[in-house]
Design brief:
single chain; 134 residues; alpha+beta; Thiol Ester Dehydrase, Chain A; six-stranded antiparallel β-sheet; 3 helices; 6 strands; elongated
């Protein structure tokens, strides 16, 4: 990916690493999720608590992650995101993580999400229509 809709900087904390001294694979999902939430809040202006009170919940449907190289304690990295709609019901978040010191691609992920209203799938138009105006 060359251009991104959103970028967020992080620093790896000691407790996120496993016995091998690298970020535990599951921790990357926290980084990716936090980036998506901040994007939806900062760029698309959606508040998750307000949406939930209205019975609207964007939820992860599928996660595909390619771990390229490990991050280590103290590494500063940039989580980058693009978003698109696929079909009638799916939102696709293509996310990459780059180590800041050398701009090396560390991880590539595709997150597929759906939007539920009162537990039933709906079109993600409220999100994707705002995306068109960016």
């Amino acid at each position: 990916m060359n251009e991104y809709l959103y970028e967020l900087e992080f620093k790896v904390r000691d407790y996120e690493c496993d016995i091998q001294g690298i970020v535990n694979n599951a921790v990357y999902q926290n980084y990716l999720e936090h980036t998506r939430h901040e994007f939806l809040k900062d760029v698309l202006k959606f508040d998750f608590a307000e949406l939930h009170q209205q019975g609207i919940d964007p939820v992860v449907y599928r996660v595909e992650i390619d771990y390229k190289y490990p991050l280590k304690s103290g590494d500063i990295f940039i989580s980058k995101l693009n978003m698109a709609q696929e079909g009638n019901l799916k939102m696709i978040f293509n996310q990459d993580i780059y180590r800041k010191t050398d701009d090396k691609l560390m991880l590539r992920a595709k997150i597929i999400a759906v939007v539920l209203k009162n537990g039933r799938p709906i079109k993600p138009d409220m999100f994707t229509n705002k995306l068109l105006n960016i």
